[in-house]
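Q: My labmate handed me this sequence with no annotations at all. I'd like to see what the chain might look like in three dimensions before we decide whether it's worth expressing. Could you predict it?
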Amino acid sequence: MLDAPATELPSPPVATYTLSDVPAPRRFAVMRDMMADGHRPFMRAHLTVTREDSEAPFDGGFQVRTTGELSFAEHFCDAARYTRSERGVAASPIEVYGLQLQVEGVSHMTQGGQTRRHEPGSLMLMDSNVPFDVFKPGRSRHRSIRIPRRQLDALIAPGWQRQGILCAQPGLGNLLTQYARVLMEEMDRLNAAEAGAVL
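A: Here is what I predict for the chain of 199 residues:
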């Protein structure tokens, strides 16, 4: 009996941007301007970016992968502070939540009157339509699954907050963290229908 021929899945669209071709003294300014402009497909929200040491070396980059409705973004950068103000929210409301997995470095996230430390292995649900401040004291990298608001809003019980951090601890936190990590690793092998079901 002959095996059916293997069907190759189309590679998902990939968009990558790095600062490697930008002269070192200009790298922070270029990243800052991209954030302020909501530069798609990498940025969906307008952010203000500052840093404490204007002379320090700076590097950063993005990658966005998409399969059907499933979209995954990765961002890395050196020390910086990212702020989304009420004005920024009003100017650029976005239609997705971000389920962010911290991969490298530490971030300090202030939103809704609470500050949380986001360490490697922790998972955070991010609502970019609520003003926030994120301080990254050094090199940091995170990966984010973009979840349509209409899809997640239907699942969140009234009164539950739409932002927060889950650490990779036994139980629900570890289950969700491992699911998100594996999904990010396997999404290139999914077709659009499978990606929609997984999401």
